[in-house]
Structure to design on (756 residues):
């Protein structure tokens, strides 16, 4: 059992020897099945010919050309010139476009798609009709309306000098050719796997400074409004500023620059987290200074009173972020590492810079305006709400537990989803070009149905052709599946009539590179390719499920064949459940660890359990709002949920810490709750306002992921304050045990409140 947990591979040789030596009847069937599967996956019976299969889909970069003049003398000439000049670039290896499509004729003769420039317009019109009937061209390299052409460009990375070589250099070269032709109108845009990755990275770098400035500016403005003193504003702002500065420098040093969340989310997030703890520290320092203490004594006393709570909030927040290390997605793991590092660096900045600055001449007037800000002046109105909650503590406690569990149950109904362009700017060139490909070609991303057959099935057997035809027909029944392509389409384009099963011999008439792209007789393998759109992989879930179900039924009726749907999109769909698993592991692990930390620190299992409800309530509320608004669970949602857990627990910790202090002094839970709110209520409201406005800055981002993250942060932080004001006091009064009263003063408090 131990070896199975540590390294199961250690037992594999022993298991294989036992299995091979066991020849009783009870194991004959599994052995036969294993042998049969081996027959399907046996190595090639003879060497493959030295032929490189042609690829009509793919390429490092896709140059999208749009025009209504492709099938005109001037347009054809210009398009050929564009391809020639692009291929002349040192970093371009080759370009696959409609002119490079292999000929589909019985003799293998060259058959250009575009006529010579000296041809008449009627010849071009005939060529257009012929091109739209060519399965290698229509829907693959040329749109059905003949107004979009795809140039599949492969890059020679040895000669790439900068990112612009893969985007601007290609587009500009094409535009310069068109500009020399006054009578031709063509538009070009660039997309593909490489431009999408580069566009995402460029957007992150471009937004990094912009949103740091926005975040810092809003923090300063809000601090000035709340503290009503310039010196307090500057000192509080120093902590998150240094924290972000140290963190970004360390992240650059560690090589985490390209993570899509680090440029915008991490600086704003750390700014808000640092400002939150800074506000609590500054409120205490201002209070002691207003009471007449010296700057050093006020700073020293504030560290003793708030330092533990700040450390706990930083620790639990880091735990929330660190739990993302359990995720399988690399971006999520890196984001968790970066946030964890940032939170700890920010804590160091808060606990050192603010007290030191307050003890300098800059902090001489930090207490001016104390008690006169908007929050302090209106705190008594919020106190009425606390009294009302305490009066009905039994009912509020029951509602807290019931509502949290109901909302959590609804949150579990969220469906996972993912898009290629989620982290791109909505109007970016790569995203716009990809959307055009989705519309004109049925999608940029590709998948395939793989067909394998038993080694007893003869090469070019009619049953192989029948199976390929059946797969082609199956895919065409799904509207969201774009342009299936296989031997069936290619043979149908050849002269003659009949289904593929009756024309298997004609496969040999196809050009070898084309034949090998869809049919490998030595490996007993064939495929049917197709395209899918970037409309969210979750929307393809029912489609892939229907296809897989039908493949199973067909395979049962044809035991000599093995059928499977494959490709990157299918892999992402099948592993989407891992997003939910990651979320469950992250939240579950973080919740358990945070519960354990609070239980140990407060030396109370009751307080640890009580803290769970106000911490889970904001997450469940946010998940519920996502569900009713029709949103799905994406990678950014997984990050946001875990991040928000780390932030939401901060206010709870500050409240509980002050409650324990007051409880030890007063001996009564009701009075301790009131004094705890008076002590930390100002900071709770201030930090919530700052956090909500800070997260709002990310709503200005062009990235859809950043906006989703910001919205979830706003919802979670807002509902966290409600949980701390409505549920936490009721739960403390109802369940918290007073260490000064073994008969549990909270029970007598409840009895008196119910009498009232």
């Amino acid at each position: 059992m131990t070896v199975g947990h540590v390294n199961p591979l250690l037992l594999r040789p022993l298991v294989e020897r036992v299995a091979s030596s066991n020849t009783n009847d009870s194991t004959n069937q599994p052995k036969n099945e294993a042998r049969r599967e081996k027959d399907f996956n046996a190595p090639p019976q003879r060497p493959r010919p030295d032929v490189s299969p042609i690829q009509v889909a793919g390429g490092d970069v896709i140059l999208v050309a749009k025009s209504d003049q492709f099938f005109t003398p001037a347009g054809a000439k210009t398009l050929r010139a564009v391809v020639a000049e692009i291929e002349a670039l040192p970093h371009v290896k080759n370009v696959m476009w409609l002119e490079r499509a292999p000929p589909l004729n019985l003799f293998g003769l060259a058959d250009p798609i575009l006529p010579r420039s000296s041809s008449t317009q009627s010849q071009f019109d005939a060529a257009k009709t012929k091109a739209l009937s060519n399965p290698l061209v229509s829907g693959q390299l040329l749109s059905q309306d003949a107004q979009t052409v795809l140039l599949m460009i492969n890059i020679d990375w040895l000669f790439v000098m900068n990112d612009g070589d893969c985007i601007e250099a290609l587009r500009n070269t094409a535009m310069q050719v068109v500009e020399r032709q006054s009578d031709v109108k063509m538009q070009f845009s660039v997309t593909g796997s490489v431009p999408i990755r580069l566009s995402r990275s460029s957007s992150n770098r471009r937004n990094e400074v912009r949103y740091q400035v926005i975040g810092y500016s809003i923090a300063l403005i809000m601090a000035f409004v709340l503290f009503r003193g310039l010196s307090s504003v500057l000192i509080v702002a120093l902590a998150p500023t240094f924290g972000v500065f140290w963190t970004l420098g360390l992240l650059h040093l560690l090589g985490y620059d390209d993570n899509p969340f680090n440029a915008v989310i991490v600086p704003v997030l750390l700014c808000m987290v640092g400002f939150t703890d800074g506000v609590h520290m500054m409120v205490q320092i201002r209070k002691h200074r207003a009471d007449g203490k010296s700057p050093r004594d006020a700073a020293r006393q504030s560290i003793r009173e708030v330092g533990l709570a700040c450390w706990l909030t930083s620790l639990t927040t880091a735990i929330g972020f660190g739990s993302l290390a359990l995720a399988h997605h690399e971006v999520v793991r890196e984001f968790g590492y970066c946030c964890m590092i940032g939170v700890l660096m920010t804590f160091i900045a808060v606990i050192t810079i603010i007290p030191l600055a307050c003890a300098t001449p800059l902090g001489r007037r930090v207490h001016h305006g104390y008690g006169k800000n908007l929050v302090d002046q209106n705190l008594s109105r919020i106190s009425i709400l606390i009294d009302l909650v305490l009066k009905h503590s039994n009912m509020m406690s029951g509602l807290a537990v019931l509502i949290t569990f109901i909302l959590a149950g609804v949150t579990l109904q969220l469906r996972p989803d993912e898009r290629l362009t989620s982290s791109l700017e909505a109007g970016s060139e790569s995203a716009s070009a990809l959307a055009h490909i989705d519309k004109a070609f049925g999608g940029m991303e590709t998948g395939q149905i793989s067909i394998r057959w038993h080694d007893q099935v003869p090469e070019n057997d009619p049953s192989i052709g029948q199976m390929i035809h059946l797969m082609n027909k199956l895919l065409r029944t799904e509207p969201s599946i774009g342009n299936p392509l296989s031997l069936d389409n290619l043979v149908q384009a050849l002269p003659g009539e009949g289904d593929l099963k009756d024309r298997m011999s004609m496969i040999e008439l196809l050009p070898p590179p084309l034949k090998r792209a869809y049919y490998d007789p030595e490996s007993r393998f064939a495929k049917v390719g197709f395209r899918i759109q970037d409309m969210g992989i979750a929307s393809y879930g029912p489609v892939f499920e229907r296809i897989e179900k039908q493949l199973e039924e067909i395979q049962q009726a044809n035991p000599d064949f093995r059928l499977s749907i494959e490709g990157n999109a299918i892999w992402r769909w099948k592993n989407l459940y891992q997003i939910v698993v990651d979320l469950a592991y992250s939240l579950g692990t973080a919740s358990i660890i945070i519960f354990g930390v609070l239980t140990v620190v407060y030396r109370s299992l009751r307080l640890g359990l009580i803290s769970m409800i106000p911490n889970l309530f904001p997450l469940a509320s946010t998940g519920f709002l996502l569900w009713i608004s029709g949103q799905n669970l994406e990678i950014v949602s997984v990050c946001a949920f875990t991040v928000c857990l780390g932030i939401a627990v901060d206010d709870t910790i500050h409240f509980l810490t002050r409650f324990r202090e007051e409880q030890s002094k007063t001996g009564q839970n009701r009075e301790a709750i009131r004094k705890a709110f008076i002590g930390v209520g100002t900071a709770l409201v201030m930090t919530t306002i700052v956090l909500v406005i800070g997260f709002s800055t990310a709503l200005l981002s062009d990235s859809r992921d950043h906006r989703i993250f910001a919205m979830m942060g706003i919802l979670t932080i807002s509902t966290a304050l409600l949980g701390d004001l409505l549920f936490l006091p009721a739960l403390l009064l109802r369940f918290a045990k007073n260490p000064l009263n073994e008969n549990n003063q909270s029970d007598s408090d409840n009895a008196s409140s119910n009498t009232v």
User: Anything to note?
Assistant: Residues 197-367+382-417+576-755 form a domain with the Multidrug efflux transporter AcrB transmembrane fold fold (CATH 1.20.1640.10).
